[in-house]
Every structure is written in structure tokens, then in C-alpha cells.
Amino acid sequence: MPPLAKPELVHLCDLTVELAKPMELGDAPRGRRRIIPIVGGKVEGERLNGRILNLGADWQTIMADANAELDTRYAIETQDGALIDIRNFGYRHGPAEVLAAVGRGEPVDPAQYYMRTLPRFETGDPRYAWLNRLICVGTGARLASAVLISVYEVT
């Protein structure tokens, strides 16, 4: 049997996800829980462009070791009117002083911490049915009131 092909990454799009102020739920059995409403944004890419709707949130858990488990769900409306559901699960972690600066909304070089996601798209629009079959990964950065995610298709 010949060796299996090594997966490669092809840029799909960049997401700018605008956020409202976090709602703190407090300490729970798995860690500190918070809900961060998603209030808009944009999608820019060669095959996927549009806007992020004011609909959805990140249901985040901050573990005892300061690792953040990201669990988001929101919606995209493409420039030609298709609606796409996106679920994005991931992790953000790094040195305590770097994460504290990120938490205060200070500008931090994303190379100083780890933020990776697994975006999954779903739509009933036949023009974008190809999204339903993709495996993607994302690399991200947290800004004061937004998250930036570059999404890559695994080929």
C-alpha cells in the first residue's frame, strides 16, 4: 500500500467576530463559566464572503490552569444571501502574564499564546453545500472587542 497523502492547509476565509461584554456565570464544576455574545462581524475569503449576524455566543470555560475552552455557535449571511451555521470549538492558552494582558483587552502578539479552533459549517443552500463536507482548522487572536480567526480547509 502506498503511503497516505499528507494533509495540507488551504486558506478558506478570515473571520472578524465582534463581541459584546462577557457575561460572567461564575465558578462551576469544570471551571469559571462565561457567555460572550457575538454581535456581528465579517467573513472575507476567495470562496466565502459575507457578514456575521448579531446572533450567537461563545460559551467559554476557563479552567484552573487558565486554559480557555472555546465553544461558539453563530451564523453567517453570505454576500449573495445564503445562511450558514458555524460551530467553532477550540482552546486558548499561554503564559499567565500574556493571558492576563489578553483578558484586559491589551494588544498582544498572537504568537505569544496558542489559540486554535475546529470550525464546522452547515447550510441547506446548494451554492454552499461544499461547506458541509469540509474539515477545517482555525488560528486565532483575541482583541479587546473581537476575535480574529483565519480558517483553513484541510485537503
TrEMBL record:
It holds the Pfam family DUF3237. It comes from the Bacteria. InterPro entries: UPF0311 (IPR020915). Belongs to the UPF0311 family. This is UPF0311 protein EJC49_15095. The lineage of its organism: Bacteria, Pseudomonadati, Pseudomonadota, Alphaproteobacteria, Hyphomicrobiales.
